[in-house]
Amino acid sequence: MRAGIQRLATIVEAELGCDPDDGTLWCFVSRDRRKAKMLRFDGDAWCLWYVRLARGSLRWSHDGAGQPTLAIDRGQLVCLLAGAPVAARMRR
Fold first, then answer.
1. Tens place of pLDDT for every residue, the chain, 92 residues?
2. 85 vs 4, 43, 58, 79, 81, CA distance in Å?
3. Considering Cα of 51, then 53, then 88, then 90, what sign does the dihedral take?
4. Quick one: pLDDT at residue 4?
5. Which three-class secondary structure string do you get for the chain?
6. What pLDDT, on the 0 to 100 scale, is given for residue 54?
7. Can you give the pLDDT at residue 90?
8. CA atoms of 12 and 19, how far apart (whole Å)
9. CB-based contacts of 76: which residues, under 8 Å, 6+ apart?
10. β-bridge mates for residue 51, sequence order
11. Of 59, 38, 63, nearest to 48 (Cα)?
């Protein structure tokens, strides 16, 4: 969880093969699932949010074992950040 805006944008582009400037909200979760950083470019500026849960962990399930990316909607993101389990679909 040490990466900043530039490093996270580089990960999106180089490792995930996606465009970090397309307006997508990218969420990076720590190994212990208690912390997350979210990165988004809104067309004018980069936004970086850092979340650390006081208790519980970020929980989700998906059917893409080993796949690094998932797509979730706004409601699922709110549930995820509240510590509720989320079922996500694979990002295409």
1. 899 999 999 999 999 999 999 999 999 988 888 899 999 999 999 999 999 988 888 877 655 556 667 788 888 888 887 777 776 554 44
2. 27, 31, 7, 7, 10
3. positive
4. 95
5. CCCCHHHHHHHHHHHCCCCCCCCCCEEEECCCCCEEEEEEECCCCEEEEEEECCCCCCCEECCCCCCCCEECCHHHHHHHHCCCCEECEECC
6. 87
7. 45
8. 7
9. 86, 87, 88
10. 36
11. 38
Neighbours of 63 (CB within 10 A): 9
The strand pairing partners of 70, in sequence order, are: 90
The rounded distance, in Å, linking the Cα atoms of 30 and 42 is 24
What is each CA distance from 46 to 7, 55, 71, in whole angstroms?
12, 28, 20
How would you classify residue 43: left for phi > 0, otherwise alpha for psi between -120 and 50, otherwise beta? left
User: Tokens for 22?
Assistant: 């397309």
